[in-house]
Amino acid sequence: MQTTTLDVIKAALKADQTVRAADRSRLLGLIRNDGEAPGEKATAERVARIVRRAEAARRLGCSLRLVDRLAKDGILPKRRLPNRQRAAGFLESDIDALIAGKLV
């Protein structure tokens, strides 16, 4: 959507005295995000993202060796793709949980 179209909609909503400011903001947010609530896209994209061990080490602020040791000890479980023998990496949610102190 072009910015001029968004400006026209914004002006029309502002001119209507029956629309509250909170409702106006919510409607403009829905228009900008193609009808989805502002947080829905980010949540759906992060559901099952697999992160490789180098990225996991960077996020945890540690070495590859420590990431391997965490996986060996079962603290950070490795994830495999179907019909594969080697692990593809770690779930992003597992890494975030470890950073937050929820896994251990």
Secondary structure topology:
Layout: H1 3-15, H2 21-32, H3 40-45, E1 50-51, H4 53-60, H5 64-72, E2 79-80, E3 87-91, H6 92-100
Antiparallel strand pairs: 1-3, 2-3
Rg calculated over all Cα atoms:
22 Å
**Arrangement of strands in the largest sheet:** 1-3-2
Q: Could you give a short account of the major beta sheet?
A: 3 strands, antiparallel
Number of helices: 6
Shape: elongated
Q: Output mean pLDDT.
A: 83
Tally of strands: 3
Order of helices and strands: HHHEHHEEH
Structural class: mainly alpha
Give the DSSP E fraction (strand runs of 2 or more residues): 5-15%
Q: Give the total of domains.
A: 2
- Give the fraction of residues assigned to helices: 40-55%
What does this structure look like?
The structure is a single chain. The chain has a three-stranded antiparallel beta sheet with strand order 1-3-2. The N and C termini lie far apart (46 Å). The chain has helices at residues 3-15, 21-32, 40-45, 53-60, 64-72, 92-100, and strands spanning 50-51, 79-80, 87-91. The protein is elongated, with a radius of gyration of 22 Å. The chain has two domains: 3-45, no CATH class; 50-100. With 104 residues, the protein is mostly helical.
